[in-house]
Amino acid sequence: MTAAEAKRTARRRARRGGAGAGGGAEPNAHLRVPWITRRIPTYDLLDEESLVRIEQTADRILAEIGMEFREDAETVRLFREAGGEVRELSKDVWNIRFEPGMIREILRTAPSRFTQHARNPANSVEIGGDAVVFAPSYGSPFVMDLDRGRRYGTIEDFRNFVKLGQSSPWLHHSGGTICEPTDIPVNKRHLDMVYAHIRYSDRAFLGSITAPERAADSIEMCRILFGADFVDENCVIMGNFNTTSPLVLDGVTTAGIRTYAAAGQGSIHLPFLLGGAVSPLTMAGSVAQCLAESMTSCALTQLVRPGAPVVLASFQSTMSLRSGSPTFGTPEAALGSLVMGQLARRLNLPLRCAGNFTNSKLPDAQAMSQALMSMMSAVQCGANYILHSAGFLDGLLSMSYEKFVIDTDLCGALHAYMRGLDVSEDTLGFDALAELGPGQHLFSTAHTLRHYQTAYWDSALDDNQPWETWDEQGGSDMATRANKRWKKLLDEYEAPALDEGIDDGLKGFIAKRKEMMADAWY
Amino acid sequence: MTAAEAKRTARRRARRGGAGAGGGAEPNAHLRVPWITRRIPTYDLLDEESLVRIEQTADRILAEIGMEFREDAETVRLFREAGGEVRELSKDVWNIRFEPGMIREILRTAPSRFTQHARNPANSVEIGGDAVVFAPSYGSPFVMDLDRGRRYGTIEDFRNFVKLGQSSPWLHHSGGTICEPTDIPVNKRHLDMVYAHIRYSDRAFLGSITAPERAADSIEMCRILFGADFVDENCVIMGNFNTTSPLVLDGVTTAGIRTYAAAGQGSIHLPFLLGGAVSPLTMAGSVAQCLAESMTSCALTQLVRPGAPVVLASFQSTMSLRSGSPTFGTPEAALGSLVMGQLARRLNLPLRCAGNFTNSKLPDAQAMSQALMSMMSAVQCGANYILHSAGFLDGLLSMSYEKFVIDTDLCGALHAYMRGLDVSEDTLGFDALAELGPGQHLFSTAHTLRHYQTAYWDSALDDNQPWETWDEQGGSDMATRANKRWKKLLDEYEAPALDEGIDDGLKGFIAKRKEMMADAWY
């Protein structure tokens, strides 16, 4: 053992012993779960009549305007066979219209809930129903931290974020393109990303969607990891696909969707809606369009392989009236998310929705004000898979180290929130008041001693000390504490064990695939 | 006109002209209201059975443990006459028990909704039902800003916060003890506080509750302002009273409550519950106790003057398991607030609940993360009067200039949130998509042009610009922008007109009252 390793081991022991030591003494231990079972009701914004009007508008969009498909004749063939009315607009561009109800009918074979398996079976997650899964943010080209500012993401950043995710008990899923590893050629980076998820995390993850062959590589790596038979029978990877709003599905996307579905793997179908730019400014219309696009994209999977796991998705953003920039974490988008939750349940499909969105360029008051506005809507609307739960800054352009740990801490608080309020003889605590009576503090009552370890969420980042103590300790803000924390977590990180034969198999596959292709940088 | 005045007038004109000029061009103009009419449903956490169990526990607390009353024989007499079972514990200390249902019966005469009149009739507010009123934070001994740090509050700070409140369209009420003006003797500061609310704001406000004669002074000043007859017939002032938890009402409090009620004025009845210290750690028990204490305190008003306006109240806080300090903006407290909303509606009483709570000592990420966790519960639970809507920092010990303007901006966003999501032919926006079809941006559609001024909340403090623009402009965080903003708002502030005769009357009353008393500093 090297000196550095010994130091690390000692730290780990100290950490595990923790304050109070003993099995259950770790703060928040009672809240740890592989995924959350939501025990709070959904917050249902709209009445039946309004929901029906939105659904009818979605149907009308598909029947009268239709969706445009590009450069994927096989997808067009599948939809034509299913009853879609196909018009060829030009070579490789088709408009397809669907009679009201047709898409819903196709979606009947999609599961309302499914398991995505992790390589550590204890970390497999449920997606759908009352299950809730938090995953890191996805797709930023830049990364940020307080020391080095904003810069392009690298594979080292990518690995760091996988490690930070793995080290947080409040995320359940390793995510996908946590940041773009821009130092790796575009046509090869998916191999390094999938490998990083497998090597540095033992949770479920997302694969590549940027080209059908990269989707296939991602799935092939899972066959090495899980065995081909297991992969054929079970969902072990998902792809996160974007429509090209308004109302377009390009061929790379539909071919990727078909690749995941054919392999029996999961897929998420997201219209990225920016009101006024690619969807109506008014949220009712944006939600109707979201439903139309996501349903249609989901339906493709069922034509390829009925029963393939599929996730409806919603990403509502708004627009700054001053600059035309997209805005995140706004009240209108939060309302849109609440409605999407209702619509997903009526379709009986799992939902991906919202996350800790913000436009802020720093982990400051704006960042968390917008983040909570957005995230509470995800939690309350009944979303099942909440991508962008950690790290989102700068309108999704930057992944922030500090915000990542601030967000995961919030995710911990949301574990407590989603447990709901338990009403029982014990929690009603009549005895606690009766024991000493009016005017007496309850610190020493049997009820307090029985509950004090589990009654309240204990944040790792909030400073809840008296002002004097806080001031004596340097008067830090949360961003500064977060900066220290991510460094400590990375320093203490331990990779989960991985079978050497599998590791060699993965490395061999990656080497072979990289050898086969010249580097491409676009 | 002095040079300074001329400069100020020019600034005002520029401001009013604003971007785009013209009547409705001011951002968010469509959201301005004297109070909010909530168009979103309440978020109902618990089922009927759980609510009944909480109510039964509250009844059992009052029947088997009882409330303790101190040093106010008149209040004891009133409750005895109403059927309370009185036991004298010692000289001036009584325990009173109430049969299940008795307190609810007494509360039947309390209005479910009432108007609190402002000196500017356009600013009168409704309290109860679907009406929602935001008021500044209340009761901090310290004030903070980024330039001068933490210090004791003064009457100058108090006036500044009244002015900042008045200048925000997103607050509806001037509040009460916005901060303690510690440079004025304790027995005289109520006169200066009430005068500041009257002079520097034309909204409704809260009066003194720290002694019955100070309550009487506050009401007397309203008689000078509104006329004695008007005050006798209408609610023009409210007192915000705290029980002494657990289960005690001291004589200063009950005498103050009787003073407001006898004058037909409003009162708010708040148990300040810190779980594990003065209420059970488990939230179900804390909520049951809150209901028992607040109901009983409210009931006193109806014994004094049936029909007196009264507000049930809830302030749930939790405890740091490490330090024993009270914690604010925690998930458990948010759940407690949601349940209090349900219980208040079942009692048919207006509710004061939560606010922008936090333990943070700076206007940072923690401040707004905790603030939103708390504030969203207030907005969603159906609370009617939300004190602590602006400025709350440092576990209520400090009033922050920066957080005040950050919070009022959030209050603006909540105006948009509480409008809900409108579903109509127009907002469904089918035409917006049909106009140009798939793949085409919607910037120029008739639908976009028709809605762009009113579709989205436009924050005065969020930086939603691209990173490059933000960076070029200095790369500020929200706290820094807030620091500039409160100074600008104070600089631009104009006092609303006040009749000179009334002003002289108030000044004369204050001078006379101050002359009658020696300074007291405790």
Automatic annotation (TrEMBL), chains A, B:
Disordered as annotated region, ranges: 1-28
Gene3D superfamilies in alphabetical order: Trimethylamine methyltransferase-like (3.20.20.480)
Q: Where are the transmembrane segments?
A: none
UniProt keywords (A-Z) are: Methyltransferase, Transferase
| GO BP annotation list | methanogenesis; methylation
Kindly list the GO molecular function terms attached to this UniProt entry: methyltransferase activity
Tell me the enzyme class: transferase
Q: Which Pfam families match?
A: MTTB
| InterPro entries, A to Z | MttB-like_sf, MTTB_MeTrfase
EC number per UniProt: 2.1.1.-
What highest taxon heads this organism's lineage?
Bacteria
Would you identify the family this protein belongs to, as annotated?
Answer: Belongs to the trimethylamine methyltransferase family.
Protein's name according to its UniProt entry: Methyltransferase
Q: What species was this sequence derived from?
A: Jhaorihella thermophila
